Amino acid sequence: MTTTISPPEGGTRDAARTRENILRAAQKLFAQKGYTTTGVRQVAAEAGADFTLIRRYFGSKEGLFRAAVEDFLLIEPFITGDRATFGQRAVALLMIGEEMPSALAMMVLATADPQARILCSSLMHDHITLPLAQWLGGGDTALARAAQINFLWMAYMTGRQVLPLPALAGADLQGTRQWLADTIQAIVDG
Question: Is the pLDDT of residue 177 over 60?
């Protein structure tokens, strides 16, 4: 005997929209509460979906976390454009990122879980550091320079989002952003 699940009243099921809702709910909760304290049932409730759909779309809580973080780890917007304005462009993109749940907040709050910590380190290396090093160009220092830029980005976003520093909220914020842009540009320029 086959059981069919009928679509919600007044509409049809939309798998892509449901998957997207689950992903956005997970990003919000992982960024606010962390990996270890966020359960799949909480994510499903936030998304207005059945929790069994998390396994269907993401395989597991770890798969959901991976997808939530990877969705934000995009290096292309940073490296597309004029090399001479990389620092300014990077800071402008970080400012946009301040207004939404971030991969960094999700990753920092996930460090309590050893498996999640390893996953986060690997994702940052594969999606940000390596492509940035390649963009910077060959040479023995490209990977170290990419790591320095990534480190500055993480420190800035930590001070703005994860553990907000009051000194980065007032009138001095623009000066800090200019310092960050100049420092990043100096690393790019070698």
Answer: yes
User: What is the Cα–Cα distance from 41 to 184, expressed in whole angstroms?
Assistant: 41
pLDDT digit string, tens, across residues 158-172: 888 888 888 877 778
Residue 53, domain CATH: 1.10.10.60
Q: Mark whether 143 and 118 lie in a shared domain.
A: yes
Per the structure, the count of domains in the chain is: 2
Write the burial class of residue 24 (CB in 10 Å: 0-12 exposed, 13-18 middle, 19+ buried): middle
What is this structure's pTM? 0.81
- For the record, the structure tokens of 116 come out as 């999640």
CA 112 to chain centre: 17
Q: Identify whether the C-beta of residue 161 lies closer than 8 Å to the C-beta of residue 104.
A: yes
CB 68 within 8 A of CB 24: no
| Residue 84 belongs to some domain of the structure | yes
By CB atoms closer than 10 A (0-12, 13-18, 19+), residue 29 is buried
Same-domain pairing of 91 and 174? yes
Domain that holds residue 54: 15-61
User: Are residues 96 and 127 located together in one domain of the fold?
Assistant: yes
Straight-line distance from the first to the last Cα atom of the chain, in angstroms, rounded to the nearest whole number: 68
Place of tokens 């499903």: 44
